[in-house]
Each structure stands twice: as structure tokens, then as C-alpha cells.
Amino acid sequence: MHDEFLCHVTGYGICDGRRIGVPLGTYRAPTLALALWWLRDRASWIADRLDPQPEAEYFPAGALAPVAGTVLDVPAVMRAWCADLYQQDLAADELAAGRLVRIAASDDTTEYELLAESVDAVRMHRMASALFTPVA
After folding, report:
1. What global pTM score does this model have?
2. Residues 82, 80: Cα–Cα separation, whole Å
3. What is the pLDDT of residue 60?
């Protein structure tokens, strides 16, 4: 069982013809349960910022407008992942086995990516790379 996990959330977009990543948060989770909680929390955070409730008092009347039905719905993808217990169990199994978990959703301009990986797996990968690197 892996004991500690690195979690990241990043937004990617195109700037000056290049794909640019903007870190939106990082968390070093001391347990698997906290890693999954953080991923769900950040997925909800993204969804709430991209799809706020129009009736919230901090928006002036008419400030928000619905988008066309053809626009990819990142908030719906993030909320669905948060609510899907099967996906949560699958992510937990992958992390416990030392594998990287990636949840991503894109719209017309931006890709939102959530990543989590075992600190132990990262260390083992680095160590294996160092052990098998040819020396000139």
C-alpha cells in the first residue's frame, strides 16, 4: 500500500501558438482517502467556477448567459466524476497499486487536468531510472 500521494490540478490553453499549463493547485496527501477527497474537492471547485449558479447574489442580473448545447460541458464531466462511486473505487485501486490517476475534461479553449500519484511510486521510478542509466 502506498502511503503518500502528490495531487495536482492544472489548466492548459493555447497562448501564442503554444500549449501552456497553469498550475491551479497542489496537495501532498498523507493518505489515500485524503488524496481522493482533494481530487473530488478540486473537481467540484472547477465545476463551480465554470458553471456558477445564476441566482447567486454576487452576480448582477443578466451577467451570465447559457452557452450553446454544442459546447463541451466540463462542469458536468467533473460533477459526474465526483458522483460516480465506481470511478472513485477505480481511482483508489489505481493509486493503491502505485499507478498515476488522471481525470481530464476539455472545452473549446481549455483542458482541465487532475493528477494524483504515489510518492513511493515516483521515488521508485526515479531510482530505477538512475540505476539503469548508461554511464559514458
Report:
1. 0.80
2. 5
3. 80
